[in-house]
């Protein structure tokens, strides 16, 4: 149903714009289906079981999230050496490869082969996780979007950025509302990204300034140095017996580009007057992404 809603919004805005501009030409707005493409996703991490996704891309008016591929063969190589060759299970959205537990600096290459001889491939090198050196917290007052003062928890995360190359990061915050309950329920929360690192944009053509890039940033402002990054946890989460898990992800360039272009495409989707955003892919002869990442974590407990 979500895709139908987006199409309806596109059509409504498009014809509304035609009326406002008073255009006298007769214009056609056609939705054309494209040939489905093979989709590959994999996000290898150190010491984690590799997971693969394979499907066909869906048509624009389809209500399916994905269309499965019959008789697909996959091959996974690590550092140029083939590790496994097998059939992709029919009907599976994701398949686990327990035989492969990748390590830092491993290069993972994945190939899909269809029975008609069509093949696609993608590869990535798993990054070294950058460590959280320290995490300090302090109560503070913050003026929210409604202009009211709100008590928040300011978190200052310090990391040591390697100076050998450009580096890409993401900070995620998970919230466990009651650590005394069983089972414990964890949810990812939307924190306030007050640090200037979150404001740096790689693409100056991004016109929607309120696009939330989910805490991704680069080392552009502090390359090769220790840096402290500030963010705020809203008051609504600051209760007794609460726990926060802070994740510092070290991203490959392909993961960073894929995530941010995906978020841009989603934001622009409801504005047909803008050029569509091309979602980054590193898949040869297909779409999707194979992108590595690594993580370090730290915990905050409020008793």
UniProtKB/TrEMBL annotation:
A Pfam family recorded for this sequence: DUF4249
Protein name per Swiss-Prot or TrEMBL: DUF4249 domain-containing protein
PROSITE patterns recorded: PROKAR_LIPOPROTEIN
Lineage: Bacteria, Pseudomonadati, Bacteroidota, Bacteroidia, Marinilabiliales
